[in-house]
What does this fold into?
Amino acid sequence: MLTSTNKKNNIWHYLVALIGVICISVLAGQLALNGLFTIAKSSYYLLGKYKVNYRSFLLISQAIMASAIFIIAPLLYCFSIEKKSVRYFFVGEQRYSQFIMLTIGLTLAAIMVNTVFTYWNVHIKFPAYLKAFETWAQKKEWELKKLTDLLTNFKSIQDLLIAIVIIGLIPAIGEELLFRGILQNLFFKSTQNIHIAILTSAFIFSAIHLQLYGFLPRFLLGVLFGYFYWWTQNLVFPIIAHLFNNSFALTVSFLYPKSATVHELEGYELPPIPIIIIFAIIGTLLGIYIQKKTRYLHK
It folds into this structure.
C-alpha cells in the first residue's frame, strides 16, 4: 500500500518524465519547423513559387509547435510512461448529443460571467514597490496583443476557419489532454482531493500562457474545464468547452475587428449587470444539472 510520502514521490517522478517528454517534443517540433522552411526556401530558389507572409508563417509555426507540445508529447507520455491508451480519457459519460449542448450552454454562461473577472484583472493596480513588475507585465501584454491582432486580422471566412483549427481546435485538444487528462489526474491521485487537483492544474494552465492581465479569467475557465472532466469522466466535454471558448473569441474578432483583443489594457467595458446576473443563474443551474446527471459515474 502506498503511503502519503510514496504518493508524493511518485507524482514527482511522473512530472519529471512528463517535462522530459515535452522537452524532446519541443526539440522535434523545432527541427520539423526548420526543415519545413528549409524545403520551402529551396522551392523558392528552384521554382520561384514560394510565397508566404509573416502571418502565415506564425500560424504554421503555432500549429506545429502546439501539436508537438500539447498533443504529441502527452500521447507519448501516456503510451510510454503510464502505459495508457487514448481511450482511457473517454470512458465516462456517453450521452454526447445531450451533454454537448449542456456543455456549450454552461461555457457560454461562464464566458459572460467571466467578463467581470476580466474587467477586474485588466484594471488591476500594483503597489509602488511592484512598479517595475507592473511595467514588465504591461510591456509583455502589449507584445502579446500585437501578436493577437496579427493572428486575428481576418480577411475572409476562410481565414477565420483556418484560425479556428489552429488557434481553437489544436489547443483545445492538446491543452485539455495535458492539463486535465494528465496533470489533473496526477494531482488527484497524489492528493485524493479533486478540488485541489482541479485548482492546481487550472493555475498551471493559466500561468503557462504568461499573460498576467488575462490570468484570472483563464484560471476560472480552467477550473470549469476541470469540473467538466471530473463530472463526466470524458475528455470530450472539456475539449468541446475549450473549443467553443476559443472559437467564440475568434468569431467575435472576425465580426467586430476593432475589438479583436479580449484582454485590452484600456477601454474594456462590462456588459450590463442584469445580463451578467441572468447568465450567472443559468450557468449555476446548468452546472447543478450536469453534476446531478453524472453522479452515477462516481458511485
